[in-house]
Design a protein that fits this description.
The complex is a heterodimer of chains A (330) and B (310). Chain A is an alpha/beta fold. Helices cover 33% and strands 18% of the residues of chain A. Chain A has eight helices and ten strands. In chain B, helix 5 packs across helix 7. The chains are: A alpha/beta (330), B alpha/beta (310). The interface between A and B is medium-sized, with 32 and 34 residues.
Chain lengths: 330, 310
């Protein structure tokens, strides 16, 4: 079977924090300590509200996991970006396939840094997870994308982080931390430059997803595709805490209508709203391109514009018609 | 403005005297592959003639650059295993550093890395502008702004840039903008993709206010240490130069890498750089001229030199 299930999910470190005090600490580190004037909405994000967000995130993760397990994919393609983890200035690709057989990734949800320490995505103290890669399938797909479809995709046989990272970037480890619990689905790891300008156009990202879906149309295996990151956020930046909610809601509406092509308008102009973490929305666009090629529309599970979490948090999934019938029949 | 396009082969023999040619030849053979008959015809007199023609060809490239005096030279090259190995191999990569350093020493001649240090002056500002424009046109360019060679670090950078940089480009004082095309590790971009890249590059450069030249480095047919080591596919080389240079019809070569074949393996894959340069030239309607073509069996390479003038 071709691609039959897709996920678009934010992966911000805040999503893995379980207490109000951790959330408030993150907010301090990312926004307040940097002197960024905050939007009025932070006033509404009191204890009960934060607890509500934490509960909604948990429920969203649980539902994605439930749908993932129901679909039970043979292969999971994960699209994600890098933030000075794998790549330093010596070699920054727009697109890259990782072709090692197995690589480590750290769990999210680490302790918040103490007062006075700078913020960086904190990884858990748990030993890192192993992510398996279906190298044969990855190479096959890479070959077709480069030679037939004209995508200029770099590739690496070794995960040799040249910057501050360990193993695969958090964009891959974070969703894997709950989706792969209890299974070890072989993956295709696709880096997309979501962070380091200049980067891919939204159209390019969409076209890549569509090409992946077309190429895998006759594969007998069940294939899932996960776009990790987004939505609108500028953590620690000029607009930390300010979330372009109209853009996020418009974006999700297009995906819900199966109109993901319209998201090509993103990144066509330079703006404070299009850069930094918002660049990660590209991973969703690639997923939408693949799922819409299969005739699917997104189910938006939840959207939370969390000022203290500095991120518009989105959780969504796609099922193709065949899959919806299969689930209904169960 | 794009004012000049050039193309040159890059065999190590181009940069050394006749007495080094035999050692170079032996270092690039593959055991069990006999030499073609043509090798025997390369007497001392023939080699002298080849060397003279090489010097003239390089002088011609130098002279054209000297008379056009571009603000920068975009060098379309390839990695020879120095910069990338199995770690992060890009299909297309813009070098955006201020300088490119390395060694043009030839290991096969026992030359020491320290004795042939090269520093090539580049132009980051122009490189970034070109890089941005290429991405805007949907070429998924990697960039490299500092050197961190993963293959053979002691050499610093690819000979595609260092050899010409240390020889006929030296003294011209023209900043370089190195651009790499993956010509070595599968999967590599198709001929069509390289042509489209060249067309986009030509259009971008022609639309900028500065004066640019482009030079492809690599090719033509050669397969050092490979299945056809020592054999020169003259028929292929002449076809490429005829279509891409003389007739201004590089598009005719669109499908040349869309199959598996011994004929396009090894160093012959570097013809991709010629396709890109030819397409850039055609985008500004430049007229191509074959400067020389020397099928050198002692250098195990079809040595080509070409120029397109606007």
């Amino acid at each position: 079977m071709p691609i039959g299930f897709g996920i678009g999910v934010s992966h911000g470190p805040g999503m893995y924090l379980k207490t109000e005090s951790d959330w408030n600490r993150a907010w301090e580190l990312l926004s307040l300590d940097r002197g960024v004037p905050q939007p009025a909405s932070v006033e509404l994000e009191d204890g009960p509200k934060l607890r509500e967000y934490i509960s909604r995130i948990d429920a969203g993760h649980a539902e994605l996991k439930r749908q993932f397990d129901l679909y039970d994919p043979d292969i999971c393609i994960i699209i994600g970006g890098d933030q000075n983890e794998m790549f330093d200035r010596s070699n920054v690709p727009q697109l890259m396939f990782f072709l090692g057989e197995r690589e480590k990734a750290e769990y999210p949800g680490g302790p918040m840094p103490a007062k006075g320490q700078p913020y960086s995505p904190r990884m858990s103290n748990l030993p890192p997870m192993d992510i398996d890669i279906d190298v044969e399938f990855s190479k096959w797909l890479l070959d077709k994308l480069v030679k037939q479809e004209g995508f200029d995709i770099a590739f690496s046989y070794e995960a040799k982080p040249l910057a501050r990272g360990h193993g695969l970037s958090h964009a891959f480890g974070n969703p894997a931390s709950y989706l792969f619990e209890g299974n070890n689905t072989p993956t295709v790891i696709i880096y997309e430059n979501t962070f380091d300008a200049p980067s891919l156009s939204a159209k390019r990202c969409y076209d890549l997803g569509a090409a992946i879906a077309r190429l895998t149309r006759h594969d007998p295996r069940k294939i899932a595709i996960v776009g990790s990151g987004g939505l609108n956020h500028d953590p620690g930046g000029k607009r930390s805490g300010w979330i372009d909610e109209p853009m996020d809601r418009w974006f999700l509406e297009q995906l819900a209508q199966g109109n993901g092509r319209a998201t090509q308008a993103l990144y066509t102009f330079d703006s404070d709203t299009m850069v930094a973490g918002t660049g990660e929305t590209r991973a969703w666009i690639t997923t939408a391109g693949a799922m819409e090629e299969m005739g699917s529309r997104a189910t938006i599970l939840d959207y939370m514009p969390v000022a203290k979490g500095v991120t518009g948090l989105g959780l969504a999934y796609w099922l193709t018609d065949q899959q919806e019938h299969a689930v209904a029949a169960e | 403005m794009l004012s000049l396009v050039l193309a040159t082969s890059n065999a190590p023999s181009l940069y050394r005297d006749k007495r080094d040619w035999l050692r170079l030849y032996e270092s690039q053979l593959t055991e069990g592959i006999p030499a073609p008959r043509e090798l025997a015809a390369e007497t001392d007199e023939v080699l002298d003639d080849h060397l003279t023609r090489i010097k003239h060809a390089q002088a011609a490239l130098q002279e054209r650059l000297g008379s056009v005096r571009p603000d920068a030279l975009v060098v379309i090259g390839y990695d020879d295993g120095v910069m990338f190995n199995r770690v992060q191999v890009p299909q297309f990569c813009t070098y955006t550093g201020a300088e490119m350093t390395g060694s043009s020493a030839i290991a096969a001649l026992g030359e020491a890395v320290e004795d042939h240090k090269v520093t090539l002056k580049c132009n980051p500002e122009m490189a970034w502008e070109i890089h941005r424009e290429l991405i805007d046109r949907e070429f998924d360019m990697s960039y490299m702004s500092v050197q961190n060679p993963q293959g053979r670090p002691e050499w610093g950078a690819s000979s595609a840039f260092l050899y010409p940089g240390a020889s006929f480009l030296d003294g011209l004082d023209i900043p370089l903008i190195p651009v790499l095309i993956n010509c070595r590790v599968d999967p590599m971009p198709s001929g069509g993709r390289c042509l489209d890249f060249g067309t986009a590059l030509g259009q971008i450069l022609d639309g900028l206010p500065q004066k640019f030249a482009v030079m492809a480095v690599g090719g033509l047919s050669h397969d050092p240490n490979g299945a056809r080591a020592g054999w020169v596919d003259e028929r292929l080389d002449r076809f490429v130069m005829d279509r891409a240079v003389r007739r201004g019809n590089a598009q005719r070569l669109r499908q040349m890498f869309d199959l598996e074949s011994d004929a396009i393996q090894g160093g012959t894959g570097q013809i991709r750089t010629w396709l890109a340069a030819a397409a850039a030239a055609e985008s500004v309607k430049a007229r191509g001229q074959i400067i020389d073509y020397i099928p050198s069996y002692r250098a195990i390479t079809g040595l080509g030199f070409a120029a397109w003038t606007v």
